[in-house]
Write the structure tokens for this entry.
Amino acid sequence: MESVRAIKEKEKLSVAALRSLVIDQTNKAKSGHPGMALDIAPALYALYRDHLVADPTHPDWINRDRFVLSSGHVSALLYAMLHIAGYDLSMDDLKSFRQLNSKTPGHPEVDVTPGVDSSSGPLGQGIGQAVGMALSEKAIAASYKEGSKIMDHYTYCLCGDGCLEEGISQEAISLAGHFKLNKLILIYDENGSTLDGPTLDSLSENVKFRFLSSEWNVLEVKDGNSIEAISSCIGKAKKSKVYPTLIIVHTKIGYGSKNEGDHKTHGEPLGEEDGAYAKAKYHYDYPPFFVPNEVYEDLKSTFRKRGEEAYKAYCEQINAYKIYHKEDFDLFNVSFSKDISSLVKKVEAIKTKDIEATRAASGRVLTNFYKTIPFLFGGSADVAGSTKTNVKDIKMFTNITPEGHDVHWGIREFAMASACNGVALHGGLRPYCSCFLVFADYMKNAIRMAALQNLPVVYLFTHDSLAVGEDGPTHQPIEQLAMLRSIPNLLVIRPCDQKEVEAAYISAFSRTDGPTAIILSRQNLPLLENSSEEKAIKGGYKIKSFVNPDCVLLSSGSEVALSLEASSLLEAKGIHADVVSLPCLEEFDLLDEKEKENILTLPYEKRISIEMASTFGWGKYAKFNIGIDTFGSSGKPNEVIEKYGFSKEQIAEKIALFLLRK
């Protein structure tokens, strides 16, 4: 048995190795953020050596503990730890830190670096994603017979002052406390520094009281270099039966540097001279990018051994579970598959209605999807009755009923979207969330992170136009469609009726490589005679055509019916206007050129787009664009629509004028 002294010496050497690798990576790259990485290294070491359960040889093991580095700029420390801990990350990978196409990018990226559970960097979002992971663990364990035998792990998150100053952090913290996510443990590096200067320049709140008031346990470590104290606090946090836990670790930024405690170490490499000074302070007398064998052995005999044993035990346990609860096991197994298109194909169509708001059709379709895909999981930001996501017979998720899959996120759009990213990253549940389209702005960066991480999250945005009416310009979306369409890897689908709504859901829940936004109307829309679920899935199709058309009208959502009405008025005047429904521009763009030409019919100069929103982006498809490039007004929906030129008569007149100008 090792002596206490020997253990202490090994700890010092291992932490010194981590810190030195941080210095080496940032110095070689001539960029990076060594400050927090140097001061919080003991905490990450204590977590991996003594607590985190994961197996480097099976990095995607579904019952592993999750770790989210919310302060993604501290990536050099995480890469050093993953390398030493035995993940498929070589010393050459560390030497390629922040270089093009390396496995060690400037901020952690999921599916790029083995052992990285989420992409992070936009401060605060890591906390939101960790909350989503902890939600998933709790909900999944409660959703199956003896569910704790197949889903039972902790979610850890490391953050700094920057994460806690971002508004999303309070939304997420509040959610975690309300839902009693007791297996969520947040480690907070309190180093008293931000990029621009001391934390006191911009922060004077009592963080401890903030978390206590949000129903969290709070533990403190006065000496950030005390591995024993940090490990003890993590152990206490794991024993919590009710509340999530915050561990405040007091440190000095840039520990070991000549500028220790100074914000200057936050985002600039130490350089050769100061790097050598710091290593001397750590008593680490080795060449750059060198780790003594005993450091590898330290993590091999603790972290790796614990993970390998846990993985083996889990495999035996789940094999037994398969025998005793085969039906539950089969569903559990399918739920962790990215591709659930086989289930989507089994969903039966709902009964049609002659007239119905697409938000109402969406509610009926979502309810129907639950019958075949019971591991759907989501809700709205306090507007379920309006977005029609209040699914009948689906229990609400609470601490008392964690088996529920209907989440009341409260008025927390940003945290809702970020938590859904965490749910998708975790696996086992298929997340969706909803609110009014105009408030997609609150969620934008989380939507971007979903697209960046290829996460199949579904957003249901309702109240999609001026037809919101009396609520006025604060609630009438104008630029949001253009904003969403500008996000790479996000499908934006705006269906014109029930058939296209069903197509949107099929596309959304069949996706494996990115998120989908479904844009829905508040007002009733007719079921169109020639609309097509099958054709809508391709992104665009002719819904009305003439043998020799004079022009072609391109539109989405509620404006498809409007275009058809305008076309009929023009026809009475001898003008033949084809109508094309374009519910999804991203899917339409993927069609081959010949198929697109067959749908668009006429040359660019004879195409006219019609959408009750910003015209931004429509110039790609049509020379003439009818839209709204100002904010709206408060009033009766029909009066507002007419004020901004969207009655069928006004549209027909504009089209006729465009044709005269050609």
User: Anything to note?
Assistant: The two ends are 90 Å apart (CA to CA). Residues 236 and 361 are 49 Å apart (CA to CA). DSSP finds 25 helices and 20 strands in the chain. The first helix runs from residue 4 to 29.
